[in-house]
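As a warm-up, study this chain.
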Amino acid sequence: MIRLLVLLAALLAGVVTASLAFGDISLSWHALFETIIGSPEASPQNSMIVFDLRLPRVLLALLVGAALATAGTITLAIMRNPLAEPGVLGINSGAAAAVMAMIVLVQEPPVLLLPAAGFFGAAAMAVAVYLLSWRGGTSSMRIILIGIGLSSLASAATTFLSAFGEIGDVQRAMIWLAGSVYDANIVKVRLLFFWLILPLVLAWMSARELDLIRFGDNSARSLGQPVDLVRALMIVLCTLISGAAVAAAGLIGFVGLVAPHIASRLVGPSHARIFPVAALIGASLVAAADLVGRVIIAPTQLPAGIVTGLIGAPFFAYLLWGRRHVRG
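Now compare it with the structure written out below.
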């Protein structure tokens, strides 16, 4: 386990270093090293590129990736469905509809209002999914089905607004929906970091409860777990974590699906082991996706959400193919 964590940390460090070095203006390794250590020989231009432009972007990508991977791990456990991700709770569609409405219906909304609208839209949708799925208790199947239905409704609202909104407003909203960390700054990084500390710690402390609920509601109840309460608290944590990530960077898909699956293959079913490994994998995925999006067709930049979609869609198809003979 320790050897794996060291290997993943080294991989992450390599991605971070490459992200600081490469872009529209690439820096040599020597120039990057001089800039990072604050050498007198480092040029002011390189310092501005590294510390003002690229470092906040990389840090935001790491936080968003770790958050999405953690939220995905929670979702897989409480839904007991290998194809589930935070979007099942309506988080993505709720955030998308709220941001689209804010941009299209409000005349020149403040920039800081968009992340707030995304978070509250995600939270409102998650609450609605949970309440509508309550029938003297909850079940993962009801949550999934109602989540799919409400997500479709929210997607229809988003499409309606995009069809009748001003072209400029719609284009602005679509850029946000694509998922990107291009507008990162150190203030946004700090806000997201301090917001995520408590939910991430609580999620990792709940590893034993997730291990129990993964065996099924009846088995968990027989071992003394209050299943409905645990599921509700886990949905709250998932919403706080994933909603904040979506509000900060838009819709970056499939990270919450890919990272937990890879982590469970590497370290087994224990969530105490899955959480740190999934967080490192998720952070590496988003940072690498942002790097690829910046350099593959430079100077044009692809949003990180498009790159993760290109990775995640084949992985989703692989999961479906692996379960083609599974009944129920």
